[in-house]
Amino acid sequence: MLTFALTQTDWINLAYLLAAICFILGLKMLGKVKTAARGNAVSALGMLIAACVTFFVLNEGEGISLIWIFIAILIGATIGGWGALRVPMTDMPQMVGLLNGFGGMASMLVGIADYSLVASGTYESLPFNKTLAIGLTILIGGVTFTGSLVAFGKLAGLKITPTKPVQFAGGRALIAGLLVAGLLLAVLLIFKPHWGWLIAPMVLIALGLGIVLVIGIGGADMPVVISLLNSYSGIAASMAGFVLRNELLIITGALVGASGIILTRIMCKAMNRSLLNVLFGGVGGAVAPSAGGGAKGTHREASVEDVGIQLEAAGLVIIVPGYGMAVAQAQHAVAELARLLESRGITVKYAIHPVAGRMPGHMNVLLAEANVPYESMLDLDQANAELEQAGVALVIGANDVTNPAARHDKASPIYGMPILDVDKARSAIVIKRSMNTGFAGVENELYFLPNCAMLFGDAKAMAQALVTEMKTE
Amino acid sequence: MLTFALTQTDWINLAYLLAAICFILGLKMLGKVKTAARGNAVSALGMLIAACVTFFVLNEGEGISLIWIFIAILIGATIGGWGALRVPMTDMPQMVGLLNGFGGMASMLVGIADYSLVASGTYESLPFNKTLAIGLTILIGGVTFTGSLVAFGKLAGLKITPTKPVQFAGGRALIAGLLVAGLLLAVLLIFKPHWGWLIAPMVLIALGLGIVLVIGIGGADMPVVISLLNSYSGIAASMAGFVLRNELLIITGALVGASGIILTRIMCKAMNRSLLNVLFGGVGGAVAPSAGGGAKGTHREASVEDVGIQLEAAGLVIIVPGYGMAVAQAQHAVAELARLLESRGITVKYAIHPVAGRMPGHMNVLLAEANVPYESMLDLDQANAELEQAGVALVIGANDVTNPAARHDKASPIYGMPILDVDKARSAIVIKRSMNTGFAGVENELYFLPNCAMLFGDAKAMAQALVTEMKTE
Amino acid sequence: MDPFVTHIVIFVLAIFLGVELIQKVPSTLHTPLMSGSNAISGITLVGALICSFSPTFARFGVMLGFLAIIFATINVVGGYVVTNRMLRMFKSKGSRD
Amino acid sequence: MDPFVTHIVIFVLAIFLGVELIQKVPSTLHTPLMSGSNAISGITLVGALICSFSPTFARFGVMLGFLAIIFATINVVGGYVVTNRMLRMFKSKGSRD
Ligand SMILES: NC(=O)c1ccc[n+]([C@@H]2O[C@H](COP(=O)([O-])OP(=O)(O)OC[C@H]3O[C@@H](n4cnc5c(N)ncnc54)[C@H](OP(=O)(O)O)[C@@H]3O)[C@@H](O)[C@H]2O)c1
Ligand SMILES: NC(=O)c1ccc[n+]([C@@H]2O[C@H](COP(=O)([O-])OP(=O)(O)OC[C@H]3O[C@@H](n4cnc5c(N)ncnc54)[C@H](OP(=O)(O)O)[C@@H]3O)[C@@H](O)[C@H]2O)c1
């Protein structure tokens, strides 16, 4: 009498809903410092639920046996887990890029697999929305895969993927052409669902598109690119959901796709750039050494002893780390220097610019690795409030984020970017190897100010030299 | 060959999706001053789309003829439109309450109608989720209806609904009993879907529950109650969507239900109360005249002439309006007084406490009605920054929102509520009719401070007297 | 297939969305927002329309549907007009940022 | 009934929700958030599992599904571990507010 009819499928879908809720809560919690770690755990729980529940779906099918599935999972988990545990903190951005590429690849494979699984001669009756979804899954998944691989290569410094933006005549036309061709093939598949041969060129076009899209962007912009590709891989997963008529994939993919775009925009804003400028501006990369400082004035050089004396005389030292500190892996030496200073009664704080380094939070991660307490890291506003009181601002491998031109020189490419007001400290000391420019390729006015002195050398070597100097005094 | 199969139902559902998007954007825009008016228009557009599209669903049925439907819409639109245009601004809260009640009633009727429409003897096969939804629609819709009517009555000052919290022995037990009985009936209907007689007691219980829930709450808390009931009516609409298997109703109802709860919480926070305290605290209403100020000290009385002189001597006058100004409909007289002062070179600003009056934004609405420019209305923080510089703080019918006890007296029921620091102005003048207390029923320490003087009388009469006084000087 | 679970999914997503949509509303807007979302909850009008035109003809049910249309329309029309009146007040004067 | 349009509805709701969820993230969290949501996009693992066990047996398709499982699992496991490592860094020291 009572049709209390929840089928097994219904229960599975309810469990999938639970997983989706975990992802929603997890994403929200990941956005706040206090709850971020728990948020990641909640989202991992959702993934566990989703994967386990799926095995209930499986007992109806008769594809490759469960054993093979477990083997595949084991292989994947081993590679993923091993890589994730082994990768040094400073290589995180490329690691995320690589993982993201694999996700896109998986979605693309799901799209192809589902198409080839309808092999029982029923292609003709494929509804348009399924073929459409298959086409989009392949295209977006493919772009995500090669795009992420190129981003990985640029960040890892692989030879085949120069960090410089590789731009060539007709580059944009090529991009547009590939895009149009890919979409045309996808439309064709809708009208001719039985033309299986369309899949191969579609895959190739997607892979090619991913490469040309990213190869033209400078290596330093890769974090933004990876964030964008992360959004793409979400959309690809969502499209795979349309292919498989799976609500969990649709929801979760869309969540990642949308939040990824928002995060990308936030990251662009922090650099005072537009997304279009990042994608097609061809900015950044290993900037060729520029003409040196002669054009703007003369700089003053300091010796290790000079600097040691100045540091000891300062009441408050604010350390401004930048990309150079990351490259030189100098964080431990810097932290040791700071502790030494503190043991002599000098207050030491770190001024963290939001886009110092090459990925957001780069400096925070490095300094945390060197056990610098969270409380002594100042964000942009806090730092600028304290810099005026600082005896010495010690700039270590940072350049653009300290350039006063951003405040007043409308012609400068970094005009408008909020900077750390290092020039307002009583004196500024800059550790870098030469007068070369940083990421944006512009001269730094700071170096020619009377209260600024340069200490040339590798960041790690110089920090260690300062430690030795102070200990031997 | 190409199964480009979007059925008519599909197109209708896509149009419904468009309507839902309008509601989402509309709600979001309603939350910002800049976009609020446009947001309301966007949401109205969504409603128009939804209603029009529904007529396409209808051409399949054969219920009452279209003519009757149009007549019903015409009747509803006439009543609603006429009432909405005619109601004075100050009666807005009760108007919203009334409208909300009608929405709840409509949902309840939809639930009953759908049940009775399955009259073809197929009750036995009603799936549990449909009967469950019918039960919830009736219960929530019914509670919303009578609850809103009582709230309306209290705000409109109807005799049968005293503004005082009507609490009686066993009141809470009655609430609990009705709730349990209603839910039991709903569960029973799931198991016995053909027991149509269950509907009538369910309706009665829901209606009764709405009454007893709200009758025990003080009249001044009605805005919060209406906001909560608004959330209920959203949930009722969502449940009606489950009954009719209509996704638009489910989505839109859930949006209103969730955002309504959030708004309710925000409103409670602004009064420094918890929702539970509002619902079951029995606070507020027409507070009985208390023992007067003798207990705390003595107050000083001023004459209209005194006040006139003080106002003319002040460089900056800050007017603090409250519930009394609303009751006395004094906004126009107050605005005239302000303009008179300004014409004599005195700066006049208004300090608007978020919960002054009896509904959020009460004062803003009233003052806007009297053509006070938006720029001269200060919010809490701005006002407190300027009050220290004010020559005179002219309090008109406000009480609790100026009570310094909220800052330091932990025993006070309003302790912790942010207040306007009227006591920090050079001098404070309070216009009210007596030494009676305000909404919270507590003595106001302000009145016994040496820099405070009382001007007793009706707010409108006193404002007019001040105008006359200044003109005749 | 009974779309019940899918509808639950939709319901949950809309609940989460509703919670996120409303955040930090200035107190000036509390009443208009309440009234505006009250107008939106008049969406039950669509349900009333569907009921009144149900293919299964049942006098009583259809009459209820008819009544529901009236009530829902009052809610919708009244709600939007009232909200609009309140918001026009703020709008007509001065600049805002 | 083809659930396509219902799925579009779900997709749109999730998109709106995703947009609202992420707002004003401190820059420290940009990379962990990116990496955490990258792990979530490994949900395509569920799709890979479903493909590999499809009732219609087709050698090629199932092999692709098998490959897809490997790639997706790398993404999921690697993503969560990497994110966790980054977040642990911030967590281990001092208080936070
Ligand atoms: N954080 C992000 O998310 C992100 C993403 C993309 C782009 N960016 C951009 O990256 C820039 C970051 O600014 P930044 O100030 O951190 O870095 P920067 O402007 O790129 O400058 C880094 C400096 O470090 C020096 N350096 C390199 N290797 C060194 C070593 N081993 N020892 C000592 N110094 C070394 C270089 O000068 P020498 O060659 O003379 O040593 C260089 O001038 C900004 O323009 C930002 O917009 C940031
Ligand atoms: N805004 C909201 O959303 C809301 C909602 C619910 C509750 N509340 C509560 O309401 C209170 C609002 O504070 P409030 O300072 O605006 O008002 P209040 O504390 O209620 O005080 C109003 C005062 O106005 C005087 N008054 C009444 N009629 C008058 C008339 N015709 N002419 C002159 N004075 C008259 C009364 O004193 P006499 O009798 O001596 O004249 C009374 O003391 C707060 O406690 C708040 O929590 C607010």
Written overview of the protein:
The complex is a heterotetramer, with two copies of chain A (473 residues) and two copies of chain C (97 residues). In chain A, α16 links the parallel β4 and β5 (427-432). Chain A contains 17 helices and six strands. Chain A is elongated, with a radius of gyration of 26 Å. Chain A has helices spanning 8-30, 36-58, 66-86, 92-117, 128-156, 171-191, 199-215, 222-244, 247-270, 275-280, 304-313, 323-328, 331-343, 362-369, 380-387, 405-408, 459-472; strands at residues 316-321, 347-351, 377-378, 392-396, 427-432, 452-456. Chain C is flat, with a radius of gyration of 18 Å. Mean pLDDT of chain C is 84; it is low at 92-97. Chain C is 74% helix and 0% strand. Chain C has four helices and no strands. The termini of chain C are far apart. The interface between A and D is large, with 121 and 87 residues. The structure holds NADP nicotinamide-adenine-dinucleotide phosphate (NAP) (2 copies).
Produce a short descriptive summary:
Chain A is of the alpha/beta class and 473 residues long. In chain A, 58% of the residues lie in helices and 6% in strands. About 3% of the residues of chain A have low confidence.
Biggest interface pair, counts: A-D, 121 and 87 residues
First-to-last CA distance of chain C: 51 Å
Radius of gyration of chain C: 18 Å
Biggest beta sheet summary of chain C: none
Portion in helices of chain C: over 70%
Helix content bin of chain A: 55-70%
Total beta strand runs of chain A: 6
Report strand % of chain A: 5-15%
Tally of contiguous helical segments of chain A:
17
Rg from Cα of chain A: 26 Å
List segments of chain C where confidence is low: pLDDT < 50 over at least 5 consecutive residues: 92-97
Q: Which structural class do the helices and strands of chain A define?
A: alpha/beta
Mean pLDDT level of chain A: 87
Low-confidence stretches of chain A are 284-295
**Number of DSSP strand runs of chain C:** 0
N→C terminal distance of chain A: 93 Å
The best one-word shape of chain A is elongated
